[in-house]
Amino acid sequence: DIGNALASVASPGVSRAALERLDTQVADAHERIERGMDDHEHGYEALNLPQRTDPDEIRTAVEPVADADTLITVGIGGSALGAATITNALADQSDTEAVYLDNVDPEWVSSQLDRLDLENTAINVVSRSGTTAETLANFLVVRDEFESAGVDWTERTIVTTGDAGPLRDLSDRHDLPSLKVPDGVPGRFSALSAVGMVAAEVCGHDLEALLEGAAAEAETLSGSLFECPAYAYGATTYALDQRGAGINAMVPYAESLETAAEWFAQLWAESLGKDDLGQTPVRALGVTDQHSQLQLYRAGPRDKLVTFVSPGETADRAIPETDVEDLAYLGDSTLGELLEAEFDATEASLAAAGRPNVRLELERVDEYELGGLLYGLEAACVLAGELYAVNTFEQPAVEWAKKATRGLLGGGEFEEAEAVAEKTSLR
Ligand code: PA5
Fold first, then answer.
1. 203 and 71 in contact (C-beta within 8 Å)?
2. Which of 96, 322, 396, 416 is most buried as measured by Cβ atoms within 10 A of its Cβ?
3. Distance from the CA of 352 to the center of ligand 1, in angstroms?
4. To which H or E segment does residue 309 belong?
């Protein structure tokens, strides 16, 4: 719902006439996107995943670890956040705990490993390139922990990586069950491939429903933003950014969707942050951040768009009655009603202050809706990338830092590492 982002109610806002003019560019962009999908071009290929991903292949590969009580996914960025979005959103429907080791903060890594019963834990190591230092280092640490505990890690590990590289070599050497990151699919667009779905399968989620939800969203892609919710979002965010809303705060109203905001932040930042362009994504959580960030969103600089995510139907819990007169109104309500009232009040309060906001609505938090959300936001991002005319699917700044890190640790000769050494010597 982009009604609260229109110029008639918000500043900055975009007028209906401006959106109609922008629609010509959306039609051209859509042609370009369709061509890219048909030709299986790098990046655009991600939008073919609902048809391309084979759940049976994933199920067969994870068979040896399907009984795990805990699954440690070792991966970072696009190799972790898609899986984490799905399993964290659906955590209350799974008996398997999903743990994500992305950071290499030593205290945190040790504390995670110390608390796990490794006999009943499986490892899901994911790296498209197979060279990312954080992932490979954490994997070596986890492997060592299994060995020290006398647990055969080769029986408990599944690998998802590209055709070649150190992780592929390691996987071949130990004959580990493995899956391939599909060609043409950048990390942050890979949630609907084995990259995101191995963890979902081990946690017992419905892979077909995830893909069906994504496929239904794919069906809506068309040459007009007025007919396609994903393009409406991508075009509106672009138009608002052009008019000064350089910050996009995503605010899901469900704890289960907090990781979705984290995933979105990566998608938006790493895909669109190029050539001095791109909106800055911010993560917030309803209702919690009503008591911290909302003041700024309603009364601070007019440089923000707020993207609300409504979770739809959720389980509810009654608020117990009390004989304190001033609290009686709470006893007549449920926590769900309170949350909904807070959502409505916050949305209305921003609209009343003329602050642009958009609402993404799920029917409920399940596999089908999550598949649609992930696919829709990816399509929105690809469309926005076309409008900005940036290369949505590359990430040179990320690669720069990866090379510098390797070089600094003696993992090869990289000019990026020399640049860092030069800078640090000036301190
Ligand atoms: O989206 C991206 O390309 C990045 O966030 C990568 O996913 C991240 O850097 C991890 O890379 P890799 O999967 O090669 O280990």
1. yes
2. 96
3. 41
4. strand 304-310
pLDDT tens-digit map of 380-419 = 999 999 999 999 999 888 888 888 888 888 888 888 877 7
Helices (H), 203-251: 207-219, 229-242
As a three-state string, the secondary structure of 386-418 is HHHCCCCCCCHHHHHHHHHHHHHCCCCCCHHHH
Could you tell me if the CB of 193 is within 6 A of ligand 1?
Answer: no
**Ligand 1, atom 7: closest residue by C-alpha:** 78
Residues 6+ apart with CB under 8 A from 265: 250, 281, 282, 283
> How distant is the alpha carbon of residue 100 from its chain centre?
14
For residue 322, give the amino acid letter. Answer: T
Q: Tell me: the pLDDT tens digits for 312-367?
A: 999 999 999 998 999 988 988 999 999 999 999 999 999 999 999 999 999 999 99
In angstroms, rounded to a whole number, what is the distance separating the alpha carbons of residues 241 and 302? 11
Helices (H) and strands (E) in the chain, counts: 17, 9
Question: Which residue has 């109610």 as its token pair?
Answer: 9
Nearest C-alpha neighbor of 366 from the set 267, 263, 257 = 257
Eight-state DSSP code of residue 256: G
Distance CA 294, CA 280 (A): 17
pTM of the model: 0.95
* Residues taking part in catalysis: 270, 291, 402
Find out whether the beta carbon of 270 lies less than 6 Å from any atom of ligand 1. Answer: yes
Q: What is the ipTM of this complex?
A: 0.98
Please tell me if the CB atom of residue 398 comes closer than 6 angstroms to any atom of ligand 1.
yes
CB 148 within 8 A of CB 184: no
